[in-house]
């Protein structure tokens, strides 16, 4: 299921991607195009292969077959390291360091020259709206603030593509809404965001939706088309209809 968007530059182009984990193909035969500058939601039940797909896109997944091109280069190419930001499910910041200490460290890792680190840290703190918390030790921050420090750490290299694995998990509805408006804001600057989630109502915040089930792509649609095609009143029921339809199709084969 490939959408050809005329004239749109692709941030991610995947053809025939399969991934073996634990002796099984947990992702099988995926073809996906992600247009540049869009917010794309990666949705699907637990174990459907979302994290595996993201790992293949950032180039850290073993036992991958097929083609995964990111910003025009094969996934994992060293020059993509600064151009792609990856936020894993577990916050990967140091809890015993302050916000600024963490971000300065990640800026150094991303290769930001020492003379520009202070300015870079200031930029990302403002981008994720953490002003006033700069000197706070991460362990003393709220869950939503820690999520935003992780996001800021991924932004220090000013990446063109952000891959975010379930960034809103465990956050209350207000924080989830705030984080999604931040994602929209980041994409307005021309970045591409691939965001995974279990929470189907977050689908409405995306430009496009990729729905995975059992390692396969069940749908690649806009939120409007999703509701129109299924006739469901909301994203959650639309996804359930698609997931159940695809499971029934598979059983009939
Ligand atoms: N190291 C591993 N060895 C064997 N199987 C694995 C390994 N890692 C993942 N898997 C399996 O691969 C499948 C896809 O896992 P993945 O983490 O990509 O799913 P997910 O959609 O991100 O799930 P969740 O939403 O629960 O995080 C699952 O069935 C999982 O059990």
From TrEMBL:
InterPro entries: AAA+_ATPase (IPR003593), ABC_transporter-like_ATP-bd (IPR003439), P-loop_NTPase (IPR027417). Pfam families: ABC_tran. Transmembrane segments: none annotated. GO terms for molecular function: ATP binding; ATP hydrolysis activity. Residues 12-239 form the ABC transporter domain. Keywords: ATP-binding, Nucleotide-binding. This is ABC transporter ATP-binding protein. It comes from Antribacter soli. The lineage of its organism: Bacteria, Bacillati, Actinomycetota, Actinomycetes, Micrococcales.
């Amino acid at each position: 299921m490939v959408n050809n968007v005329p004239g749109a530059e692709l941030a991610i182009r995947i053809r025939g991607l399969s991934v073996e984990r634990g002796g099984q193909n947990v992702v099988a035969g995926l073809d996906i195009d992600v247009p540049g500058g869009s917010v794309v939601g990666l949705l699907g039940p637990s174990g459907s292969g979302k994290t595996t797909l993201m790992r293949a896109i950032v180039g850290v997944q073993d036992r991958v077959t097929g083609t995964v091109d990111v910003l025009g280069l094969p996934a994992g190419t060293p020059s993509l390291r600064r151009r792609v930001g990856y936020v894993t499910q577990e916050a990967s910041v140091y809890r015993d360091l302050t916000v600024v200490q963490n971000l300065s460290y990640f800026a150094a890792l991303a290769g930001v020259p020492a003379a520009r680190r202070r300015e870079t840290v200031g930029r990302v703190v403002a981008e994720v709206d953490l002003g006033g918390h700069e000197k706070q030790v991460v362990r003393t921050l709220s869950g939503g603030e820690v999520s935003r420090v992780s996001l800021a750490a991924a932004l220090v290299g000013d990446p063109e593509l952000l891959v975010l694995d379930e960034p809103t998990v465990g956050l209350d509805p207000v924080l989830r809404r705030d984080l999604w408006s931040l994602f929209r804001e980041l994409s307005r600057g021309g970045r591409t965001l691939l965001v995974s989630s279990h929470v189907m109502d977050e689908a409405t915040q995306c430009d496009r939706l990729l729905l995975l089930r059992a390692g396969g792509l069940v749908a690649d649609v806009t939120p409007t088309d999703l509701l129109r095609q299924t006739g469901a009143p909301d994203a959650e029921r639309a996804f359930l209809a698609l997931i159940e339809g695809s499971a029934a199709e598979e059983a009939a084969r």
